[in-house]
Design a protein that fits this description.
Elements lengths: L16 H16 L3 E7 L5 H10 L6 E6 L11 H14 L1 H7 L23 H22 L2 E6 L6 H13 L5 E8 L3 H15 L3 E5 L5 H12 L5 H11 L3 H8 L10 H10 L3 H13 L2 E3 H8 L3 H13 L3 E4 L2 E4 L2 H9 L3 H17 L9 H12 L2 H17 L3 H14 L6 H5 L3 H15 L2 H14 L8 H15 L5 H10 L6 H18 L1 H18 L2 H17 L3 H17 L3 H17 L3 H17 L6 H16 L2 H12 L5 H18 L2 H8 L12 H10 L3 H13 L10 H19 L3 H20 L5 H15 L3 H11 L5 H17 L3 H18 L2 H14 L22 H11 L4 H8 L3 H15 L4 H10 L2 H6 L1
Parallel strand pairs: 1-4, 1-5, 2-3, 3-4
Antiparallel strand pairs: 6-8, 7-8
Helix pairs in contact: 1-2, 3-4, 8-9, 8-10, 9-10, 10-11, 11-15, 12-13, 12-14, 12-15, 13-16, 16-17, 17-18, 18-19, 19-21, 21-22, 21-23, 22-23, 23-24, 24-25, 25-26, 25-27, 26-27, 27-28, 27-29, 28-29, 29-30, 29-31, 30-31, 31-32, 31-33, 32-33, 33-34, 33-35, 34-35, 35-36, 35-37, 36-37, 37-38, 37-39, ...
């Protein structure tokens, strides 16, 4: 904050005009165009909250501001704390009826935050409940903003738990309603700030996103702040000393101004401690109690912790508020700055700290209404833990873990269960105290790991639970734990089938249908790939259970398994229909994991059938959904790979490259990064940028060259005339047992292998050893080609091209290759086959037969931007004296674009002029909404337009849209 009221006079915000203007502009854009997001970073005391408060104070009176704070409670940090506060403050301002009107009818996940909304739904799958919760928060905020402009302030995001970060990311990607602004603050340099970095970068890239970091005040600004604090103009020497001592940090300036004669303390903590030392003894006592209660302090709880009569408590509170150590907040108080609470709490004596925590815990136990709704159990657990009472910590943590699980706060649930396990051996007869065995606690912790993504740890916890489970007293437990461990192993990338089979074998007859159904469905998914009959039986039994008991997650998983079995047995149409049915069921119930899995299955099937256009549409839909629901780095990354590959094969290279580069900014998992960088390298090589392709070829994962990348690296080595490296790469790939596995790409390697073989043959000359090497590689390639099936149109075309390339100058084989690629929607492959056909004709001396295919290959290469192939075509044409000029007159080039718009920006401009939103533009061009927004921003800047409608008008006047239509 830039200043505080020390001597009773008011003081203005200092040195933040540019930042205030930027926030004001974000608000105006949000009102005019759609929801916007601003993130303010800075070190402790730099004035983030003061700046945001000044911004909201200056807004139009009809605008509504609600705020929520992340709370620092260590292991007991409250999940979704800022959003819970925002929702409850909206309820107080709008009323319960208005909240119900804004939300969909039926059971609401938000009822876990607002019990007056009714009974929350009994979720069959925890991820569904969390997804519904996110959707309902979004619906509520957009509905409230539709009535009046709404600014949601989220303070101290450096303390945000992962649930809060996930919900914020979801809102950032999905909010569209005009008049809605999210403003977040976080302390740069804090450990939690690093966890925010990917989200902050995403916000900064968005067209209605803003991120900046507050810097220190300069000497002049420090002087202005001091004048406001002291009530008179300070002398220059004092300003210089305070500026030097404070480093321009407004909170330092404030603390130094309180005692300008003494500016020697060595740290801000010393300054804050000195400020508390000037309090009365009663004031210090109340401040210490407040530090134990928390950053936000309810009046009644504070009174019980202090145990002071009103006539002593109230003057002490007045002293603290007047000195601005505490500020009044609704029905209680809050510390003016979190650092102050840290200092006060850190100065407590051990006995004093324990005594105050015991008082707080006893008061909350007697009256849970002393703390905000839904926080009683976790606050009790925190206070008893700090008081050192192991038995009560164990009990309170178990209850709080249950509350956290019901509220979808899985990270908090796991932390609390960890505490239960840590305290287990410190308490007499813990099982009797809790009414559950340690095996049950371990089982709950393992299941929490499924939802947090901590799969390896979950496997360990499940194994411990299995060791301690007693089938005699809890017959279902072993089967449940085995099923959980099988799922965890599956999610960790290992085979979980043994656990799933064991779960079925040990499952009692009266096991819950969802347990048996989901176990069967999960087992069917992988068993069906090896044994379609067995997998089909499991899938059908699971589907019957799911339908009989109304279990949509089981149904969707079983349908996905059935689809995979159908694909293995060659029933592709049936497989597609099953995937579509699974996706529909999963989408209706917010089962995002299965919905995305089903879309991914459809996309793979369509790619295998050579229907790249349909595959691109499905993959783009899945990728957009994955970004919307926060799974961009998991299922979304896989869908992005399919989308980019489809666009590349279709010849839409600029779109494919944009998709790949956009996806890589999300920092996807290592294997997906390897897939995307390999595809990017293929594009760069085809476009003729060998140096850039070589940079991409450097191992991006540090895990060696994956087998699917070998073909690209072989072609790159040949293009760079690095023939020994090319041959070594080819030999290693041919020996790799994974070449014919799920990560292999044998056809691509075969085609690259013929390039290596030809380069080796051309360089061999009369050298016998080199020619023998060429013969060995030829035999290896032919043996591999004989082992790979070619029973579909695209593999058949690859086989035809392979035979032509091996034979090299057989015009009959090249004609067959050209015929095989026509109509296959792969213009680059067709262009290469036409080039080979022309080369074969020239080798036979038939220049006339070479002219037509070479001209067509040149036209295709030009359309694609295939610079490398076009150079080869030009060399061949020059060598064979073939005229590449078209007999038709060249079309008149369109007039120059005076605005300097790129081809992609012209594509976006056409859609923008048609009235499409960023999301619709993104869907049409197979790019993300944030990338579309960046293009729109650049177009507005180049056209000098302030709004989209103005840009469309300028484009019409300049004739840009007419040229696009042609």
């Amino acid at each position: 904050m830039a200043s505080v009221n020390v001597h009773g006079g008011g003081s203005a915000l200092v040195g933040r005009d540019a930042e205030l203007a930027a926030l004001g502009e974000v608000y105006e854009v949000a009102v005019a165009e759609g929801a916007a997001v601003a993130i303010v970073a800075g070190e402790a005391g730099i004035g983030k909250s003061r700046l945001v408060a000044e911004f909201t104070d200056r807004l139009d009176p009809v605008a509504r501001t609600v705020r929520g704070e992340c709370l620092e409670l260590g292991a007991d940090s409250l999940s979704f704390a800022p959003f819970t506060a925002v929702v409850r403050r909206l309820r107080r301002e709008l009323g319960g009826d208005a909240i119900r009107d804004l939300l969909p009818a039926g059971g609401l996940s938000l009822a876990r935050w607002l019990p007056e909304l009714g009974e929350p739904p009994a979720d069959q799958d925890p991820a569904q409940g969390r997804s519904r919760l996110f959707d309902e928060v979004l619906t509520l905020l957009e509905g409230a903003a539709a009535r009046h402009a709404l600014v949601v302030v989220l303070e101290d995001l450096h303390w945000a738990d992962s649930g809060t970060r996930d919900l914020l990311a979801y809102l950032v990607r999905n909010l569209e309603q005009p008049g809605l602004v999210l403003v977040g603050t976080y302390r740069s340099g804090e450990v939690g700030g690093a966890d925010l970095r990917p989200l902050v970068l995403d916000i900064a890239r968005r067209p209605r996103g803003l991120q900046f970091e507050l810097g220190p005040l300069d000497r002049s600004q420090v002087g202005t702040q001091l004048a406001g604090l002291l009530g008179h103009e300070p002398d220059r020497a004092l300003v210089a000393r305070v500026h030097e001592r404070s480093d321009g940090n407004p909170l330092f300036v404030e603390a130094l101004a309180a005692d300008p004669a003494n500016i020697t303390p060595s740290s801000l903590r010393d300054l804050l401690a000195a400020a508390t030392a000037r309090l009365s003894e009663t004031g210090r006592s109340v401040l210490r109690a407040a530090a134990v209660v928390g950053h936000e302090v309810g009046h009644e709880l504070l009174a019980l912790a202090c145990r002071l009569p009103d006539e002593e408590l109230e003057p002490a509170l007045r002293e603290l508020v007047d000195r601005r150590l505490l500020v009044v907040r609704e029905d209680g108080y809050a510390f003016q700055h979190a650092l102050l609470r840290d200092v006060v709490y850190g100065d407590l004596l051990p006995g004093e700290r324990r005594r105050l925590h015991v008082r707080c815990a006893q008061a909350i136990h007697d009256n849970p209404a002393l703390v905000p709704e839904g926080r009683g159990a976790v606050e009790l657990a925190a206070h008893w833990n700090a008081a050192g009472d192991h038995a009560r910590t164990l009990e309170a943590s178990w209850r709080a873990a249950a509350d956290a699980g019901r509220a979808y706060a899985y990270e908090q649930q796991l932390r609390l269960l960890d505490r239960v396990l840590d305290r287990w051996d410190t308490v007499p007869d813990p099982a009797a105290r809790l009414g559950v065995s340690r095996a049950i606690v371990l089982d709950h912790a393992a299941r929490a790991c499924v939802n947090t993504g901590d799969f390896e740890r979950g496997v360990t916890l499940a194994s411990r639970a299995l060791d301690e489970a007693d089938p005699a007293t809890d017959p279902q437990r072993p089967a449940r734990v085995l099923a959980t461990r099988g799922l965890l192993n599956r999610r960790a990338g290992r085979d979980g089938d043994a656990d799933l089979r064991a779960a079925l074998a040990t499952m009692p007859a009266d096991a819950p249908p969802e347990l048996r159904g989901q176990t069967l469905a999960m087992l069917a998914v992988t068993v069906g790939l090896r044994d379609p009959d067995e997998g089909g039986r499991y899938a059908q039994e699971a589907l019957d259970i799911g339908r009989a008991h109304g279990l949509p997650v089981v149904q969707a998983t079983a349908l996905i398994a059935s689809a995979r079995v159908a694909a293995v047995t060659g029933e592709e149409d049936r497989a597609l229909a099953l995937f579509r049915e699974a996706a529909t069921i999963a989408e209706v119930t917010s089962d995002h994991y299965n919905a995305l899995t089903a879309l991914l299955g459809q996309a793979y099937l369509l790619m295998g059938a050579g229907d790249y256009g349909s595959a691109a549409v499905v993959a783009a839909k899945g990728r957009a959904t994955a970004h919307r629901v926060g799974q961009a780095r998991s299922r979304g990354a896989a869908l992005t790979g399919v989308l980019a590959q489809a666009l590349w094969l279709l010849g839409q290279w600029s779109q494919a490259r944009e998709v790949v580069e956009d996806a890589l900014t999300d920092e996807p998992p290592a294997m997906t990064t390897a897939v995307l960088t390999t595809l990017l390298g293929e594009m760069l090589l085809a476009q003729g940028d060998l140096n850039a392709a070589a940079e991409v070829a450097a191992d991006p994962t540090g895990q060696g060259t994956p087998v699917f990348a070998a073909a690209f690296r072989c072609r790159l080595a040949v293009a760079r005339r690095e023939l020994e490296a090319a041959d070594r790469l080819l030999a290693d790939a041919l020996d790799d047992p994974g070449l014919l596995g799920p990560l292999g790409d044998p056809w691509t390697l075969l085609r690259a292998g013929t390039r290596v073989r030809r380069a080796l043959l051309d360089a061999a000359g009369p050298d016998r050893q080199r020619r023998e090497l060429v013969e060995r590689r030829t035999e290896q390639l032919q043996e591999l080609a004989a082992r790979v099936t070619a029973d579909r149109p695209v593999p058949s075309a690859h086989l035809a091209a392979f035979h032509a390339e091996i034979a090299q100058n057989d015009s009959r084989l090249w004609a067959a290759a050209v015929a095989a690629w026509r109509g296959r929607s792969q213009p680059y492959e067709l262009a290469q086959a036409l080039f080979g056909m022309a080369e074969s004709a020239l080798s036979a001396g038939d220049r006339a037969a070479a002219q037509v295919p070479l001209r067509e290959a040149a036209a295709l290469a030009d359309d694609l931007g295939a610079g490398h192939l076009r150079r080869e075509i030009d060399l061949l044409a020059a060598r064979g004296r073939v005229d590449l000029a078209s007999p038709e007159p060249a079309p008149t080039p369109p007039p120059a674009d005076p605005f300097g718009l790129t081809a992609r920006e012209l594509d976006v401009l056409r859609l923008l002029a048609d009235g499409l939103t960023n999301s619709q533009i993104a869907a049409s061009l197979f790019i993300s909404a944030s990338t579309a927004g960046v293009h729109v921003s650049r177009i507005l800047a180049k056209l000098g337009a302030g709004r989209r409608t103005e840009a469309a008008a300028i484009a019409h006047r300049a004739g840009l849209l007419r040229r696009l239509d042609h």
